[in-house]
Amino acid sequence: MAALNFRLERFSTPIGQLLLVSDEQQQVRALDWHDYEERMHLLMRRQYKGLALALRETSAVSPAARILQAYFEGDLGGIENIQVALGGTDFQRQVWLALRSIPAGQVLSYRDFAMRLGRPAATRAVGLANGANPVSIVLPCHRVIGSNASLTGYGGGLHRKRWLLEHENAIPALEAVPQTASLPGF
């Protein structure tokens, strides 16, 4: 069985400890919150079926971690430069990479995002792929919202989605809109 060797960094942010998984070429493979570490491992196993995954914890700070720290300090544009390497299906990768087309400070509904992808009848599939995004923040799934402008489903919790959108100045028009607790990704 082939093996993939990854590095695991842990660092603090204003909304919790972040877990950053990168490969030997310093491409980000996964990014998740400490309280969702088990889910991160599950998503990685699904993406890299048939491969052994070896995660080695490191205290060395990667370029991606530096960019993410700058993001949390207000430099919103730097995350666009973080290199990622993704498993998953072709469709999932298409959805995940298209998330970068949503600029900081803007949001897009799941329906409009599906239309942008040229798959207007696939809103639910786009939502499911978005919910399985292995590299949150870098591939900004938090910028996708419900069609009624509600803050729906975010793997790291709606409180983090709200914080990220407020941090990016995308939320002022949404403040009066109630959050919903629908299924993740919708």
Automatic annotation (TrEMBL):
It is found in: Cytoplasm. Its EC number is 2.1.1.63. InterPro entries: MethylDNA_cys_MeTrfase_AS, MethylDNA_cys_MeTrfase_DNA-bd, MethylDNA_cys_MeTrfase_DNAb, MGMT, MGMT_N_sf, WH-like_DNA-bd_sf. Pfam families: DNA_binding_1. Its main location: cytoplasm. It is an enzyme of class 2 (transferase). Coiled coil: none annotated. The active site is at 141 (nucleophile). Residues 90-169 form the Methylated-DNA-[protein]-cysteine S-methyltransferase DNA binding domain. It catalyses: a 6-O-methyl-2'-deoxyguanosine in DNA + L-cysteinyl-[protein] = S-methyl-L-cysteinyl-[protein] + a 2'-deoxyguanosine in DNA; a 4-O-methyl-thymidine in DNA + L-cysteinyl-[protein] = a thymidine in DNA + S-methyl-L-cysteinyl-[protein]. It comes from the Bacteria. Involved in the cellular defense against the biological effects of O6-methylguanine (O6-MeG) and O4-methylthymine (O4-MeT) in DNA. Repairs the methylated nucleobase in DNA by stoichiometrically transferring the methyl group to a cysteine residue in the enzyme. This is a suicide reaction: the enzyme is irreversibly inactivated. Belongs to the MGMT family. HAMAP family: OGT. This is Methylated-DNA--protein-cysteine methyltransferase. It comes from Acidovorax bellezanensis.
